[in-house]
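Quick one: structure tokens for this chain, please?
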Amino acid sequence: MQSFYLNKIVYYIGGAIALLFITSYFHPVLYALAALLLALLVITILADAMLVYLKKTGIVATRTLPDRLSIGDDNRIILHLFNNYSYPVNFSVIDELPAQFQERNWIRKASLAGNQGTDIPYTVKPLTRGEYIFYDIHVLVTAPLGFVIRKYTIPAQKTTRVYPSYVQMRRFQLLAISNRLQDAGVKRSPRLGHSMEFEHIKEYVRGDDYRTINWKATGRKGSLMVNNYTDERSQQVYCIINKGRVMKMPFEGMTLLDYAINASLVLSNISLVKQDKAGLITFAENQDSFVPADKRPGQMSRVMETLYKQETRFLEADYEKLYTVVRNKINNRSLLVLFTNFESMESLQREMPALKKMAHYHLLLVVLFENTAIRGLTESSATNLEEVYIKTIAEKFAFEKRQMIKELQQNGILGILSTPQQLTVNTINKYLELKNRARI
């Protein structure tokens, strides 16, 4: 689709000529001069329009868009433009972004030499999961003389999906493979204990532990044979995500649910890199999704597709039903990482019986969110009586959050209190600490 526009300069010149007409109405010479100027203006506009409309397709534009975007991350998109005119042009580009971005004034301006192309890269940061529709590309080309603007509308509609933060997942995966997780803030914890599992029988060589001699195999073989052991692997790690209304609280444009989903994705991938089995459970008023722990190829794809679909229905989570699912579907002792939130000690104590029953059969780690707004109030200085009251109430809520962690620990349940920004790093730190201490 193409449109024809007159530049603002035409209106200025036309207004000046109109003024000349008015002032020269009673003077024939000035009237003739005004008529000549008007004729020249019309001829110039027509010539300018002919220059920009000589080619049927003067500008070609396409968009390079990933098949999926990563929530909470900067995703790179590139517009490719090519000038089919033989002369330089100035142009403005408007890309119709999805409605979720609420971007009303997206525009880029540039110049292109004749028969030349250029790329215009930009980034978008989606804050909600789901389908995003990118629409057409509009290019406004200014004619060489500057009087006419030609608009090109290039059909470029494409639908893409916004997934949990796979960019963050890949970054942590590369750091884990290269043993550089410390670069992302993950602490190096000493290996204080280890559990061993049998791997194979081999011939004794000098330096082997004589306590591992297999006497039966030695008798059959006629030479010393020893059992070879390796660090126990393939332990089960389940990420459990509460989808109740408490997880809909917003933070920097994203919900606590999305932060939990991103952390679960990264933790699942790290556990697979560490040769453990990754599984997933989501729940609210009922058990919603269950991905059995596994480490076969394709497990991360199953986890990601499951996490992509998660939404809250603003109902209260039922922890007793969660315990029933855990008890019936997870047979081996596993590490359960429960992402949830409690706003008061009373709400935690209501769910404590179900948490204690899960901790009896598994190693349970409860991850709670710290309210950074409250922390900001506690760290601020109070200058009047009202601010003193506000700060006192904020300190009470902050203290109660810390008491929740102590309450969990007193009942044999591990706990983490983390800000949403540091959720992924803190969760990985705790997982590696438990693994190095042979707690799982």
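The chain has a mean pLDDT of 86.
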